[in-house]
Amino acid sequence: MKPKISVILTAWLRPQYLEEQVRKVLGQTVTPHEIVLWYNKPPKALGLLERKQLVSFENDKHVKKIICDHNFGIIPRFTLASALEGEYVCIFDDDTIPGERWFENCLKHVDREKVICGTIGLRFLSGTILKTQKPRMGWEGMNETLEYVDLVGHSWFFRREWARYFWDEDPPCRTFGEDIHFCAMLQRRGIRSACPPHPKSDPSLWGSLKPERGVDRVAISSTDRSEDYWNVVRTEMENGYKPMLL
Fold first, then answer.
1. Structural domain boundaries of the chain?
2. Which of 143, 185, 140 lies closest to 165 in space, CA to CA?
3. Residue 56 exposed, middle or buried by CB count within 10 Å (0-12, 13-18, 19+)
4. Which class for 190: exposed (0-12), middle (13-18), buried (19 or more C-beta within 10 A)?
């Protein structure tokens, strides 16, 4: 029996990627059971055409839309996961375009290794300042085998019942750092974080295809928030989160 996979997409300031993202999700070798778009209301500065792209686009008939008149940020998508129908859930950032075998890749590892799979992975190298191993695992480091990491991001593939662990504790921050928090909560439950193989020779397995799209002016990383980010990491460590190299 084909596994049921529920997909969560988010939209706010990057409507230009939505059609391509939906097309790539529908084109997976393991087709999704459902696709849900969490639509945070864009600012008034976004033009009428760009706003229309968020509700009317190619293949939109295959997408269930949650239309918000308020920007609830990045946290609700992890809460929404528990309410979906799939046995598995895959959440995508709005700048993440998967290769056609991404779901197939994740399914090989999520249960056998008991891991949350992501398309980018970090390992922390310091317990006092924000310092991480370079290159990152995933589409950047192009790892040939599964690599365990401290946290995964850009795309999260996991068993649906794990979503409830996100709220074992309130996240330290509501505007970013959701990736750290979720991985920290899963670690408590014996669930590790990992990047499935992203071989250089086969981008179809990647969770996000190049070129990197999350480098524009609306990206959270476009401003230096390293101190704020490290405060989130430090708070999680004080609460029991244990990076693998520290």
1. 5-238
2. 185
3. exposed
4. exposed
Residue 129 has pLDDT above 80, yes or no: no
Fold designation for 5-238: Spore Coat Polysaccharide Biosynthesis Protein SpsA; Chain A (3.90.550)
State the pLDDT at residue 222.
Answer: 44
What tens digit of pLDDT does each residue of 232-244 get?
Answer: 999 999 999 999 9
Q: Show contacts of 75-79: CB within 8 Å, 24+ apart.
A: 75/171, 75/174, 75/178, 76/38, 77/8, 77/10, 77/38, 78/163, 78/166, 78/178, 78/182, 79/163, 79/166, 79/167
Tokens of 153: 């991001």
Q: Is the pTM of this model over 0.70?
A: yes
Distance between CA 22 and CA 54 in Å, rounded?
12
pLDDT digits (tens, 9 = 90+) for 166-207: 999 999 988 889 999 999 999 999 999 999 999 999 999 999
210, with CB counted inside 10 A (0-12, 13-18, 19+), is exposed
Whole-angstrom Cα distance, residue 106 to residue 170? Answer: 27
Which has the closest alpha carbon to 36: 100, 96, 80, 2? 80
Which long-range CB contacts under 8 A does 104-107 form with residues at least 24 apart? 104/28, 104/29, 104/30, 104/205, 105/196, 105/197, 105/205, 105/207, 106/157, 106/196, 106/207, 107/3, 107/30
